[in-house]
């Protein structure tokens, strides 16, 4: 066989192979497909049909903390008192400063302190009974406390209770004093108001009398200054008369006495020193005494005049002062009068204001006593037998203390996994988050249980955006799953629907069960072993389910048909 012929035969064979391949490919492509119908049964439901915004997220199991909520730190002179309780994630820690609002008098301070030194007490852990990851039951032992620290704290809490009782007694005394003073002030306002007018008139009258008395004193002084010179002049005149009389008597004593016949008889004259000596001497001495007395009176009047003149300016000043006091006194008296009248009119209101809140301090003190008692009672209950027991059942996730540590209110004794606190956090766009509020009820479907719908409540909305894409802004919304959550596990995929519309108590079925012919809708209903075509009237649909207005009842079984292609 020639080479040329061999090449021809090879080309023919190759062409045949290509033709076969092409024919095979064309056949496979254009070979008609067969359609197979697959059916699935679904049940007609009765209940609420909702529509809303649906977002996906993952389930998270919560935790619960057992804490020590007694603030047992105490300082001398004050009583620190707080309620004690064991809190969880659904309760806020209520540890309070036991010194807040607690007042003690000096006697109480002296009875509970020494040298005003601050001291503190704490409960010390002696032993830890559990470990992280351990499953415990409610009532199991967690930690043991040292007996010495238990005694110290007990003594401190008892002191706090005693101090609170002293504060209460003091508050009651203060309340009584306030009440007595308020009643006294009320009576005083009523009395002053009733006598206000008389008091005002008496004050004005007294001030006017003072002015008049001062003016009278000035007038009297002025009159006296005018009268004294006249009295002095009269005395001087009288003195001159006495002196003149004395001179005349002396002159007569030296003359000759005439005789009966008119002749002068030298031997018969009465000379001084003879028979009339005593008489003449007596007259002279009397005049001298009179003059001396007049001079004394004149001197006394001159001194009086000098004193009156000196005091006159003071008396004039007193008049001015009295008039000034009258002016200011009228203003003060009017003010006092107005205040008395006003207080009289408002006596009841003033009394009520004074009595308002009179029981507040006592009530606060009673609350302190109540809290101190509660703290001591809760403390005794908690440290019974020196061991703190678990308040919960579950797995311990973490422990807050080791042997030798002291308890405080900021560190939990233990944290437990809380299977009952299941939450789902989803991202919601800014357009939809505005329609959501805390407390809203939502529907939740978990991928593991597609046929079940759980209920939830919006518990938190994070105001910080979570989206990295500047064109899309999302916010985290957390919902708490309600009802039985025993089948929910950490990380389960879930779909949360925030309800925007809800029809209550309607019959509904899956949209996939509805078939249409023209303007009519029908379903394939299962009746025993027979499948019948049933016309239905539909209305509202939420996208996955549709309301059946007529044609089906709750519990009816219908078919969902879907086409599957096969070669």
Explain the overall architecture:
With 567 residues, the chain is α+β, with helices and mostly antiparallel strands. It folds into four domains: 3-31; 39-59 and 412-566, Efflux pump adaptor protein, beta barrel domain (Elongation Factor Tu (Ef-tu), domain 3, Beta Barrel), CATH 2.40.30; 67-168 and 364-399, no CATH class; 192-251 and 275-354, Helix Hairpins. The protein is 44% helix and 28% strand. It contains seven helices and 17 strands. The chain has a six-stranded antiparallel barrel with strand order 2-8-11-10-9-12. The chain has a three-stranded antiparallel beta sheet with strand order 3-5-6. A hairpin with a 3-residue loop joins strand 15 (530-541) and strand 16 (545-550). The longest helix has 107 residues, at 147-253. It is elongated and about 215 Å long.
**Helix/sheet category:** alpha+beta
What value does the average pLDDT take? 81
Determine Rg (CA atoms, Å).
61 Å
Separation of termini? Answer: 47 Å
What's the topology here?
Layout: H1 3-30, E1 34-43, E2 45-67, H2 106-112, E3 125-128, E4 135-136, E5 141-145, H3 147-253, H4 277-345, H5 347-355, H6 360-382, E6 387-389, E7 394-399, E8 412-429, H7 430-433, E9 441-446, E10 449-465, E11 474-481, E12 493-510, E13 515-517, E14 520-527, E15 530-541, E16 545-550, E17 557-566
Antiparallel strand pairs: 1-17, 2-8, 2-12, 3-5, 4-7, 5-6, 7-8, 8-11, 9-10, 9-12, 10-11, 12-16, 13-14, 14-15, 15-16
Helix pairs in contact: 3-4, 3-5, 3-6
């Amino acid at each position: 066989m020639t080479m040329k012929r061999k090449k021809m035969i090879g080309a023919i064979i190759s062409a045949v192979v290509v033709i076969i391949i092409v024919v095979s490919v064309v056949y496979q492509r254009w070979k008609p497909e067969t359609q197979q119908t697959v059916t699935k049964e679904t049940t007609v439901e009765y209940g609420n049909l909702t529509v809303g915004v649906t977002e996906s997220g993952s389930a998270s199991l919560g935790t619960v903390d057992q804490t020590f909520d007694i603030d047992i730190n105490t300082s001398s002179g004050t009583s620190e008192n707080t309620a004690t309780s064991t809190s969880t994630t659904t309760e806020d820690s209520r540890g309070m400063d036991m010194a807040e609002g607690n007042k003690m008098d000096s006697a109480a301070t002296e009875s509970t302190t020494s040298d005003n030194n601050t001291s503190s007490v704490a409960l010390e852990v002696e032993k830890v009974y559990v470990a992280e990851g351990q499953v415990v039951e409610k009532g199991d032992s967690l930690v043991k406390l040292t007996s010495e620290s238990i005694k110290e704290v007990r003594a401190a809490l008892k002191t706090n209770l005693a101090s609170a009782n002293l504060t209460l007694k003091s508050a009651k005394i203060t309340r009584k004093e306030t009440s007595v003073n308020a009643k006294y002030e009320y009576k005083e306002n009523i009395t002053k108001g009733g006598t206000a007018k008389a008091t005002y008139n008496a004050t004005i009258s007294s001030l006017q009398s003072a002015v008049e008395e001062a003016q009278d004193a000035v007038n009297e002084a002025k009159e006296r200054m005018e009268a004294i010179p006249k009295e002095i002049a009269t005395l001087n005149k009288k003195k001159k008369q006495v002196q003149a009389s004395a001179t005349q008597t002396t002159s007569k004593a030296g003359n000759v006495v005439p005789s009966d016949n008119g002749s002068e008889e030298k031997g018969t004259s009465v000379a001084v020193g003879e028979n009339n000596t005593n008489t003449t001497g007596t007259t002279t001495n009397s005049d001298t005494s009179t003059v001396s007395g007049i001079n004394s009176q004149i001197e006394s009047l001159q001194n009086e005049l000098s004193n009156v003149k000196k005091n006159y300016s003071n008396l004039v000043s007193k008049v001015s002062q009295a008039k000034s006091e009258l002016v200011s006194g009228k203003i003060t008296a009017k003010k006092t009068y107005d205040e008395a009248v006003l207080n009289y009119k408002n006596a009841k209101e003033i009394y009520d204001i004074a009595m308002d809140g009179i029981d507040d301090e006592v009530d606060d003190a009673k609350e302190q006593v109540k809290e101190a008692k509660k703290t001591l009672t809760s403390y005794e209950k908690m440290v019974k037998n020196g061991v703190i027991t678990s308040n919960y059942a579950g797995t311990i996730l973490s422990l807050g203390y080791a042997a030798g540590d002291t308890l405080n209110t900021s560190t939990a004794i233990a944290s437990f996994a809380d299977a009952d606190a299941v939450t789902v956090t989803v991202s919601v766009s800014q357009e939809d988050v505005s329609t959501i509020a805390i407390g809203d009820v939502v529907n939740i479907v978990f991928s593991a249980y597609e046929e079940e719908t759980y209920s939830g409540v919006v518990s938190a909305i994070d105001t910080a955006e979570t989206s990295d894409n500047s064109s899309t802004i999302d916010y985290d919304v957390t919902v708490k799953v309600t009802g039985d959550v025993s089948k929910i596990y950490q990380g389960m995929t879930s779909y949360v629907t925030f309800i925007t519309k809800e029809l209550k108590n309607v019959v509904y079925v899956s949209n996939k069960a509805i078939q249409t012919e023209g303007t009519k809708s029908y379903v394939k209903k299962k009746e025993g072993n027979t499948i019948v075509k049933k016309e239905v009237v539909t209305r509202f649909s939420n996208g996955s389910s549709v309301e059946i207005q007529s044609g089906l009842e709750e519990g009816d079984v219908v078919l969902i048909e879907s086409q599957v292609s096969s070669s």
